[in-house]
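Blinded run. Sample ID left blank on purpose so nobody reads anything into the name before looking at the predicted structure. Input follows.
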Amino acid sequence: MKCYDTCAAMRNWRNFVPEAGDDVGLVPTMGALHDGHRALIRRARATCNHVVVSIFVNPLQFGPREDYGQYPRNREQDLATCQEEDVDVVFAPSVPEMYPSDFSTHVEVVSHLTRVLEGSSRPGHFRGVSTVLTKLFCLAAPTKSYFGQKDYQQALLVETMVRDLNIPTEIVLVPTVREPDGLALSSRNRYLSPSDRQAALVLYRSLEAGRRHILHGVRDPGQVERHMQQIVGREPRAHLEYLVVRSAVSLQLRKPLRGQVVMLGALRIGGVRLIDNLLVRVPESEGT
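Blinded prediction complete.
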């Protein structure tokens, strides 16, 4: 396994190591790797000749009152995980390497996708995501790039950016990895106290309840959302930011619900912000 911490070294590897026709898979991460990241790496390993994992806590996607300084970092453990998963290259640059003092260019997708939900809750977040991913796509030139479904809105954003800018990489969405009780894996879960960890399950329970509502015939999105929000409202530790059901393609509100939809939620338990989502295909039969 090779480890690079400069853009020049990463670019040099991409230019000269892979042979023509080889697939290069990129797994962009912010480190603190867990089994969800392992699932992404294994998917890339199964389908690509070369696997690149980037480890970079990107300051551009954190707001001024968010947890950039406290975000978990464990380089040695992350490298060991990559070694275990047979990763070919780890790209772990410093902030000055990615953003020199004279850095002045940002990439921004301007659409409904970036104005709602995570976009409105975290102003500037998606501009930071788009900027760092554009740099990573330029450096690693991946034929395929792997993202987790847990960050569903981000995945839609990246698909839009790749299409609009004609970036030659295929975006592969990998299902969310969960604990046995349903909690979506996240690097931030380690900050949950035992009681907060138990309370955090309310988000997944509410999404499951929304899914059952739809499968049982409810087609009014407002009714589904109220049902989910009432469940979260019964958990005193939870502070809800949003909990909605939207078109899985556009994140637009669709009345009545039809086709593929996604239920998305964000809440805080203590000082920890958690997001999750569930996809469901609405049955074609008449609903209520």
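Unblinding after everyone has recorded impressions. The first strand starts at residue 2 and ends at 4.
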